[in-house]
Amino acid sequence: MKFHWFLPTASDGRTLTTGMRGTHGPSHDTTNAAGPGADRHRAPALRYLTQIAQAAEHMGFDAILTPAGTFNEDPWITCAALAQSTERLKFLVAQRPDSISPTLAAQMAATFQQQTGGRLLLNVVTGGDVAEQARFGDHFGKAARYTRTDEWLTVLRGALSGKPFDFTGAHYDVRGATVFSPPDPLPGVYFGGSSAEAAPVAGRHADVYLTWGEPPADVAAKLDRIRTLAADAGRSAPQFGIRFHVVARDTSEQAWAAAERLLTGIDPEHVSRVQATLASSQSTGQARQSSLHAAFRDSGRTSDLEVWPNVWAGVGLLRGGAGTALVGSHREVADRITEYAKLGIEEFILSGFPHLEEAYEVGEGVLPLLGAGAGSGAASR
Known about the structure:
By secondary structure, the protein is of the alpha/beta class. It is globular. Residues 20-39 and 375-381 have low confidence and may be disordered. The strands form 2 sheets. An 8-stranded parallel β-barrel has the order 1-2-3-4-7-8-9-13, surrounded by 8 helices. The protein has a two-stranded antiparallel sheet with strand order 5-6. The protein has helices spanning 46-58, 75-82, 102-116, 130-135, 142-160, 198-205, 216-232, 252-261, 268-279, 284-292, 294-299, 330-343, 355-365; strands at 2-6, 63-66, 90-95, 120-124, 165-168, 173-177, 189-192, 208-212, 239-249, 306-308, 311-312, 325-329, 345-351. It has a single domain, classed as Alpha-Beta Barrel (TIM Barrel).
């Protein structure tokens, strides 16, 4: 198993209202749990992000995921800066095909590998929020976006081969695409998507297929589907990764109390506004995440947010994207990770609020129970 951490390039703090760009961004930004009075004590300054990256490296995490989007700092520039303050940590850089050509992305990837000694991984994100896509001048429908992503990945891989690559498609027409020096190693491509449009692209291109955290049976069905589609494309099945937040403590009682505190002071009307905005997303994965806490919104019982033992859907009340957390004692969280590993999950992208302290909490309390992290010598690899 590999374990990765997350870099909060919107902002960081101790509640789920963290993420608002304060008075510097639009009040309707619910993708990152915006709200008036949001916790902005941890702005994404380079000094603070460096602390998180160094903590992740020290604890033995393999890589750190850096998101893309309007209300995050640019992932390429941020990770290039952080690479100067770390030695081993890899950077899983989110990249959206709507905002950069595949040939320029190939050049940037090759340069990043050259300058960091091969510490780049690519998380290719097609996007599903209409308003967010429009900010980047992208007005394609869902099917066209995934056709473009398919072609984008084809051209990217062709250019990274270092041999002149020709391609003509609906979205790209290139002649002799290449890079000055082919990267060694090639950056792994991480790709997720739950829709009928996304899954075949994953089957054709993903080195690691990513899913957001769901109950095990739902995850298993996804993985089987991708295995089949990869075989249909004449490829071996990709590796599989999953994205969870984590609230882990010495005891289960302490962990659940900490999870409850993440929702402290939340206005139910604000939750309703966030959910209304998320409901407009074209992302099938987002709809699946939102469905996990629908019963809670109807019943009002906090217990309904635990959708599987130690799998808590409370994060999704206020944040788009990954909406579930592993909650429990260090041992309980380790056991749940093991359960998902038995399904075929090999990589775990984890995060917590705030990300600096929780990197140590997970790194010191959970990873050693799984034979990973600094305690197993991973930090010296």
